[in-house]
Write a structure and sequence with these properties.
The structure holds two protein chains of two kinds.
Chain A (H helix, E strand, L loop, with lengths): L4 E6 L7 E5 L7 E5 L5 E5 L13 E3 L2 E3 L6 E3 L15 E2 L1 E4 L2 E5 H10 L1
Antiparallel strand pairs in A: 1-10, 2-3, 3-4, 4-8, 5-6, 6-7, 9-10
Chain B lengths: L23 E6 L3 H13 L4 E7 L5 E2 L4 H5 L5 H4 E3 L1 H6 L3 E4 L3 E5 L4 E4 L4 E3 L2 E4 L3 E3 L12 E3 L3 H12 L3 E5 L3 H12 L3 E5 L12 H13 L3 E3 L4 E5 L6 E4 L4 E3 L2 E4 L3 E3 L2 H5 L8 E3 L10 E3 L4 E3 L7 H15 L12 E3 L7 E5 L7 E8 L4 E8 L2 E8 L5 H10 L7 H4 L3 H4 L7 H7 L5 E3 L4 E2 H9 L5 H8 L9 H12 L18 H10 L5 H7 L11 H12 L13 H5 L2 E2 L5 E3 L10 H13 L4 E4 L5 E6 L4 H10 L12 E6 L13 H12 L8 E6 L13 E6 L2 E6 L11 E6 L2 H18 L6 H8 L1 H10 L1 H18 L3 H6 L16 H7 L1
Parallel strand pairs in B: 1-2, 1-9, 2-5, 9-21, 11-18, 12-13, 12-18, 13-14, 20-22, 34-35, 35-36
Antiparallel strand pairs in B: 3-4, 6-7, 7-8, 10-19, 15-16, 16-17, 23-24, 24-27, 25-26, 26-27, 28-29, 30-31, 31-33, 32-33, 36-37, 37-38
Helix pairs in contact in B: 1-9, 13-16, 14-15, 14-16, 17-19, 21-22, 23-24, 24-26, 24-27
The chains are: A mainly beta, B alpha/beta.
C-alpha cells in the first residue's frame, strides 16, 4: 500500500498557515498546505477564477484566500466559498511520522485533469 | 474685612432658595485631583450651597496626575489628561487662583493668605495639599538635573532632557519610578533603575512577580540594579552621575528620584491642627478644627495614609456627603495597584505576605509569562498578585473588599471569573452582569458599575457618550470592554454602533483593537485573538494583515513579524502579476541612478530573460516576469550593485519623487533632489497602514506633482511648504497645506512626525487622504504644528521604529533566509506512470 503514497518531505518544512509547491513533470503544479492545526491538504496550485497561485495566499482556518482577487477556496473540497463558484482538483494528503504524503493516484489524476 | 474679596455677581445668588445674604464660602487649598474631585462630588449633590474658591500652586488647570506616566511615554498629551478645563471653573462659578499657593491659615479669623499677599475669608476650608516627593538626603541632591516625578513641570524637564538623549538614572523601583523609567526609555534615553530592596515594587509584588517584571524591563533595554544603595549624586555644575555605596559610578545627565512621597502637612501643622504622619481627620474628613476639612494624600485616617488614587475617590464622597449634611462616613480603603507600562500587566491588591493560616493558590504559565497568586485566609481572599494576565484583577479585588466566602469556587478561582462562576465557556457578558453595583469599572477615574449604568440610563447610548458623561474608560481605556458590555446589557440593541468592525471575525472596530493592543500590551496575533474573543481560530485574510501591522507599529523592535499574515507581495518582497510571476523594483533614491545600477539592471533583465522593463510613475525601473524561485538570485545581483528593495509591493514608503531643483533648474529655489534623497533615506523600509508616496518639488511649478502625494514638499524662496493627504488613483485628492517651515531639518522632522501620526492613528488600508477627511485637518495641525512636544515625540518614535526596519529584506532573502518561500518542497516526475495510465 505504501507505494500508493508519495513522500514529498517533512511537515516541518511547510510553515504553519502556509504552503509549499510541488511541480509535476508534464502536469500542473501542486500546492501543499499546512493549516494552523497542522492538517495537511494538497490542491492543484491554480485558482478556479483567474488561475492565481493558491500556494501564495493567506491560509486561515481550513481555507485559503487567493492572492490575486481574494477568492476563498476550501482546502478540503477545493470549492470556492461564499458567493463565488468554481472548483480546483484536490489530492488526498496525510502526515505520517512527521512526513507529508500525497496520493500517487490523486496526483496523477489531478495532473491529467489539466 | 476690608481685604475680603466680595463674591462676584452670580446668577445663582438670586435663586429663590437662597434666603441668606450670601452663600457660605468654601475655600480649597490645592487644585489637584483630590481638591477638584471633592468639589465635583459636592456639585453633584448641591451646586448652590457653597461659593467655591480654589487655590492652586501649579499654574495650570486641574489634571489627572496619575496619567503623567502616559504623557511622559508619549501616549497622551497634556490636553488629554486635563480633568477640568477652564470652562468647568467658569460654568460652575468657581474662582481659580492658580500659581498662587496659600502660605498661612489664620484659624481664629478664618482667613487664608497666599504668597502674593491675597487674603480670603472662609466659612469652610478644605486642605488638599497632597504629598511631596521624598528626596533622599544624599550629597548632590540639589544639583540641577536631579528631579522628582510629581507634576507636569517634572515631565517637561524629563522631556527636555530626553530630547538630547543620553543616560538617565531613576532612583526607586516602585510604581512611579518604573513608570518614569519606561517613559524615558521610550523617549530614547538609556535608563538605569536603582532600587534599594531586592524586589522591584516590593510593596505590591512578591518575589516571583518582581522577577518576571525585572526580566521584562531588562528585555526592553533598561538596566535594573536591585539591592543598590545610593551614596551620592556627583557633578560640578549639574548632575553627572550617581555613585552607589559599593563605589559603582553610573553616568547620568538626569536623575529622577521616585523613592516615595510624604503627606504635605506643613500648612496644617503651622496652623496648629492635629497632625501625625498626615493631617488627622475623622470619618467625615474633618480635622481637629470643625471648620477645616482635609482630603487626599495629605490626610491620616485611622492611622493610615494613602498614596494611591482609589482611596481619594472614597474620601471625596464621604467629604461631600458631610458638607451637604447627609454624612455617610469614610471607613478606610483597601487598595489595589496597576502598573501603567504598556505591555506589562501587573496587578496587586491586599496583603500577600502570607503568615499564619494563609494559603496560596498559584498558577504559572511560563510560556505565556503569566503568574497569578491568590492569598486565602479563612476562605476569603486577602491578597492577589497577577502578572501577565490581569483581566480578573477587578473581580478578585471585589471579592477581597467584600470579604466574600470563596470556598465554593475555590478549585476554579485561579482560572478567573468566567470559569469560577459558571464553569461553562467564558461569557464576558454574564461575568459583567454578575458584578455588584459598587464594583469598580474604571480605576483611573474611580467610576463604579452603578454610576456607569446610571449614565447609560441617563441617555449615554454610546461609548463616547459614556466617556464624556461619567469619564469611565476615558483615561487609559483598559475598561472599555467592560463599559461596552454594560452598554449592551443595559440597552440591548439600542446601543449606538461605533465604527464598523475590523472584519467578520470580531465585534471590535479597528480603533478598538488598536487601543486594546496598546492598553493591554498584547504582543502577538494569537494573543489579540484570544483576548478580544475572536470568533474564528486564526482569523481571515482581512484581520491577520491588519493585526500584524498594528502589533508591528505598537512594538517596534520587539514584535516578530508573522510572514503568514502578510499579503503575497509583502511576503515575497515583489509584486505578483496576473500570470503568477513577479515584478521587481529596486530603490532609486530620489529618482537618481548611475551607470553601475543601470548596468546591473540590464544584466538582470538579460540573465533572467525578463520580458519587459518599464519606467514607473515613481521614477524607478520595474523588471517584469521573474519567477518566485529566481527572486533571491535577482536580488543578490541587484544588491551587488548597491541597490536595495524599493518596497514597490508594500504598505510602506514607496518612492520620493523629485524634480531637479536648484542644482540644475533655472527656476529651482531649493535643492529638491537632495532633500528628496534625505527624506527617502530617513523613511524607507517603514511599514504603514497603506502605501505612502512622497514628492519634493523645487518650486511652485511643481514638476514632481507633489500636491497629489501623501506628503508633498513644495520649495519656495523662503523655505518649504509641507502639503499632506494627496492622492492620485481612483479618487484624485489634492493635498492640504499643513504648514510652512524654514529648514531642511524641519522638513525631515515634520515629515517623520506626520508619518508616525499616520502610522499610529490611521486604520489599516486607509490612505492618508480618507484618513485626513475622517479626522480633519485641524486634528493633524494640532498634533504636528501646534503641539511642539507632541511632534518631537512622534518624530522620536518614528526614528526609533526605523532603527529596526531599515534592513534590506532582499539582502536577507538573497542570503537564504526564509528559503521555503521561494523553493519547491519536492518534485514529482511521474513520467512512466503517466504513460501507463494513458
Amino acid at each position: 500500500m505504501t507505494g500508493d503514497w508519495i513522500d514529498i518531505g517533512p511537515l516541518a518544512d511547510i510553515p504553519p498557515r502556509g504552503a509549499r509547491t510541488v511541480p509535476v513533470e508534464g502536469g500542473e503544479e501542486i500546492a501543499v498546505f499546512r493549516t494552523g492545526d497542522d492538517t495537511v491538504y494538497a490542491l492543484v496550485n491554480r485558482c478556479p477564477h483567474k488561475q492565481g497561485p493558491l500556494s501564495q495566499g493567506i491560509v486561515h482556518g481550513h481555507a485559503v484566500a487567493c492572492p490575486l482577487h481574494n477568492w476563498r477556496i476550501s482546502l478540503s473540497t477545493g470549492e470556492a466559498l461564499g458567493e463565488d463558484e468554481g472548483c480546483v482538483p484536490t489530492i488526498p494528503a496525510r502526515v505520517d511520522a512527521g512526513r507529508v504524503l500525497i496520493s500517487r493516484f490523486g496526483a496523477l489524476a489531478a495532473a491529467l485533469a489539466a | 474685612m476690608n481685604f475680603y474679596e466680595h463674591p462676584k455677581p452670580d446668577e445663582n445668588d438670586t435663586d429663590e432658595g437662597l434666603t441668606c445674604g450670601r452663600r457660605e464660602h468654601l475655600v480649597v487649598i490645592g487644585n489637584g485631583m483630590a481638591g477638584c474631585r471633592a468639589i465635583e462630588e459636592l456639585l453633584a449633590r448641591d451646586g448652590k450651597r457653597y461659593r467655591v474658591t480654589i487655590f492652586g500652586a501649579e499654574p495650570r488647570v486641574n489634571y489627572n496626575r496619575i496619567m503623567l506616566s502616559p504623557v511622559l511615554a508619549g501616549e497622551k498629551s497634556f490636553d488629554d489628561i486635563v480633568i477640568n478645563g477652564a470652562d468647568w471653573y467658569r460654568d460652575n462659578g468657581i474662582e481659580l487662583l492658580s500659581g498662587d499657593p496659600v502660605v498661612s491659615i489664620d484659624r481664629e479669623r478664618q482667613i487664608v493668605t497666599s504668597r502674593s499677599g491675597r487674603g480670603v475669608v472662609y466659612d469652610k476650608l478644605l486642605i488638599a495639599t497632597g504629598s511631596d516627593p521624598f528626596i533622599i538626603p544624599v550629597p548632590g541632591k540639589d544639583l540641577p538635573g536631579v528631579i522628582a516625578f510629581r507634576d507636569m513641570g517634572d515631565v517637561d524637564t524629563m522631556l527636555a532632557a530626553a530630547a538630547e538623549g543620553g543616560d538617565a538614572v531613576v532612583i526607586g523601583g516602585g510604581l512611579l519610578g518604573l513608570e518614569a523609567a519606561h517613559g524615558l526609555t521610550l523617549r530614547g534615553m538609556k535608563v538605569t533603575v536603582i532600587h534599594l530592596m531586592s524586589t522591584l515594587m516590593e510593596r505590591q509584588l512578591d518575589e516571583a512577580a518582581g522577577w518576571l517584571l525585572k526580566s521584562a524591563l531588562e528585555g526592553r533595554g533598561q538596566t535594573i540594579l536591585t539591592g543598590a544603595n545610593t551614596a551620592e549624586i556627583v557633578g560640578t555644575d549639574r548632575v553627572e552621575g550617581v555613585r552607589l555605596k559599593d563605589d559603582t559610578l553610573i553616568p547620568a545627565k538626569l536623575v529622577v528620584m521616585a523613592v516615595g512621597i510624604r503627606p504635605n502637612v506643613a500648612l496644617a501643622a503651622q496652623a496648629g491642627l492635629d497632625v501625625g504622619r498626615g493631617i488627622r481627620v475623622d470619618d467625615h474628613m474633618v480635622t481637629s478644627d470643625p471648620n477645616i476639612l482635609a482630603v487626599g494624600e495629605c490626610v491620616e485616617h485611622d492611622g493610615q495614609v494613602y498614596g494611591l488614587v482609589a482611596p481619594l475617590w472614597e474620601m471625596c464622597r464621604a467629604l461631600a456627603d458631610g458638607l451637604v449634611e447627609a454624612p455617610t462616613g469614610y471607613r478606610g480603603s483597601v487598595t489595589s495597584t496597576k502598573l501603567k507600562v504598556a505591555g506589562l500587566d501587573v496587578f496587586s491588591a491586599g496583603d500577600f505576605s502570607g503568615g499564619d493560616g494563609a494559603e496560596d493558590i498559584v498558577l504559572r504559565d511560563a510560556s505565556r509569562g503569566i503568574y497569578k497568586r491568590l492569598v486565602i485566609k479563612d476562605d476569603r481572599i486577602v491578597g492577589a498578585v497577577l502578572y501577565g494576565d490581569t483581566a480578573d484583577g477587578g473581580w478578585y479585588f471585589d471579592l477581597l473588599k467584600k470579604g466574600e466566602d470563596i470556598s465554593g469556587a475555590r478549585d476554579l478561582l485561579i482560572f478567573g471569573q468566567a470559569f469560577a462562576s459558571g464553569g461553562g465557556p467564558a461569557d464576558p457578558k454574564s461575568a459583567v452582569a454578575a458584578l455588584s453595583d459598587d464594583a469598580e469599572i474604571c480605576g483611573c477615574n474611580g467610576v463604579s458599575k452603578e454610576r456607569v449604568v446610571a449614565s447609560i440610563m441617563g441617555g449615554a447610548c454610546s461609548l463616547d457618550a459614556v466617556r464624556s458623561s461619567c469619564k469611565a474608560s476615558a483615561s487609559c481605556g483598559s475598561c472599555t470592554g467592560l463599559v461596552e458590555t454594560l452598554l449592551a446589557l443595559t440597552l440591548g440593541d439600542a446601543v449606538e454602533a461605533g465604527p464598523k468592525t475590523l472584519c467578520k471575525c470580531t465585534s471590535f472596530g479597528h480603533d478598538d483593537v488598536r487601543r486594546e493592543i496598546v492598553a493591554q500590551g498584547m504582543t502577538s496575533i494569537p494573543e489579540v485573538m484570544q483576548r478580544l474573543h475572536w470568533s474564528t481560530p486564526d482569523g481571515c485574510s482581512s484581520c491577520r494583515p491588519a493585526l500584524n501591522y498594528y502589533l508591528l507599529c505598537a512594538l517596534p523592535g520587539e514584535y516578530v513579524d508573522d510572514q503568514q499574515s502578510r499579503f503575497v507581495n509583502e511576503r515575497m518582497h515583489a509584486n505578483i502579476q496576473k500570470d503568477g510571476t513577479y515584478s521587481v523594483v529596486p530603490r532609486m533614491w530620489g529618482g537618481l541612478t548611475n551607470p553601475r545600477e543601470l548596468r546591473a539592471i540590464a544584466d538582470v533583465v538579460e540573465k533572467f530573460n525578463a520580458p519587459m522593463v518599464k519606467v514607473t510613475g515613481g521614477q524607478r525601473l520595474d523588471i517584469f516576469g521573474i519567477k518566485k524561485e529566481d527572486l533571491p538570485a535577482v536580488w543578490a545581483d541587484l544588491n551587488a550593485a548597491g541597490m536595495v528593495s524599493g518596497h514597490a509591493y508594500g504598505k510602506s514608503l514607496r518612492t520620493v519623487k523629485t524634480c531637479i531643483g536648484s542644482e540644475w533648474c533655472r527656476f529651482g529655489t531649493q535643492d529638491s533632489t537632495g532633500l528628496g534623497v534625505q527624506i527617502e533615506r530617513m523613511s524607507w523600509g517603514s511599514w504603514m497602514p497603506h502605501k505612502f508616496k512622497i514628492a519634493v518639488s523645487g518650486c511652485p511649478r511643481n514638476c514632481a506633482e507633489a500636491t497629489i502625494k501623501d506628503v508633498g514638499i513644495v520649495c519656495v524662496d523662503s523655505g518649504y511648504e509641507i502639503h499632506v493627504g494627496g492622492n492620485g488613483g481612483i479618487k484624485v485628492r489634492v493635498t492640504d497645506l499643513l504648514c510652512k517651515v524654514e529648514t531642511e531639518q524641519q522638513v525631515l522632522d515634520y515629515t517623520a512626525a506626520f508619518i508616525q501620526l499616520y502610522r499610529e492613528e490611521a486604520r489599516y488600508l486607509e490612505r492618508t487622504a480618507p484618513w485626513i477627511e475622517r479626522v480633519g485637518l485641524d486634528h493633524i495641525r494640532r498634533r504636528i504644528v501646534e503641539d511642539e512636544i507632541g511632534r518631537e515625540a512622534l518624530t522620536a518614535r518614528f526614528l526609533f521604529s526605523q532603527c529596526f526596519s531599515q534592513e534590506d529584506p532582499w539582502a536577507a532573502r538573497a542570503s537564504g533566509v526564509e528559503r521555503e518561500q521561494h523553493e519547491h518542497l519536492g518534485e514529482f516526475r511521474p513520467a512512466p506512470a503517466l504513460e501507463t495510465v494513458r
